[in-house]
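Bumping my old thread because nobody answered last time. Still need a sequence for this structure:
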């Protein structure tokens, strides 16, 4: 029996680094964002280009061009999600089947919009990665191509951090440094691997 833990957190909260901590602890992790990157380099190109002409560069979806078309546009985002989400779910199912085949006691589904897409229903518990708003803002605004407007548009699509934390079974605080976060991850791995 493999225990399925959902891992989520708003932009700039340190979710990717936290997912790496689980991976380094021997826990298999399915990264929805990395899956989308792979899909944009191959399997999803035709369908996304057909829906949003001009977003392909050198045979792959250019995320910046695509972002300009869909961020802040609810209808366009829904169209994109209708193409991409079923493909991501299919890879997730293959991942979970493999984790069960290997008798992994714990598997992590790293999904940025977990609550927003109802992904928590596919998990037995959820861990939310969080940090103070000032830390989040500082991390996000140094990213290439990020602006106040883009940051605001991304946040508008995400459930507020306070609500995510209230709904989570575990909250991993990355605001006090990654060594502190690592200890929290280790505790979760011990707790959940022990319960299955």
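Sorry it took so long. Here it is:
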């Amino acid at each position: 029996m493999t225990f399925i833990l959902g891992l989520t957190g708003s932009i700039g909260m340190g979710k990717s680094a936290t997912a790496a901590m689980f991976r380094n602890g021997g826990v298999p992790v399915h990264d929805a964002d990395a899956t989308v990157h792979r899909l944009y380099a191959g399997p999803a190109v035709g369908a996304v280009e057909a829906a949003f002409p001009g977003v392909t560069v050198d045979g792959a979806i250019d995320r910046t061009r695509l972002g300009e078309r869909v961020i802040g546009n609810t209808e366009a985002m829904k169209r994109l999600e209708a193409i991409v989400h079923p493909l991501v779910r299919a890879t997730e199912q293959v991942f979970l089947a493999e984790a069960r085949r290997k008798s992994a006691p714990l598997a992590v589904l790293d999904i940025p919009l977990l609550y927003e897409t109802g992904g928590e229903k596919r998990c037995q518990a959820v861990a939310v990665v969080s940090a103070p708003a000032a830390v989040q803002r500082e991390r996000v605004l140094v990213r290439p191509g990020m602006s106040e407007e883009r940051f605001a548009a991304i946040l508008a699509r995400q459930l507020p951090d306070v609500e995510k934390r209230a709904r989570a079974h575990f909250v991993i605080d990355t605001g006090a440094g990654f060594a502190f976060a690592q200890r929290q991850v280790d505790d979760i791995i011990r707790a959940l691997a022990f319960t299955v």
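The first strand starts at residue 3 and ends at 8. Let me know if any region looks off to you.
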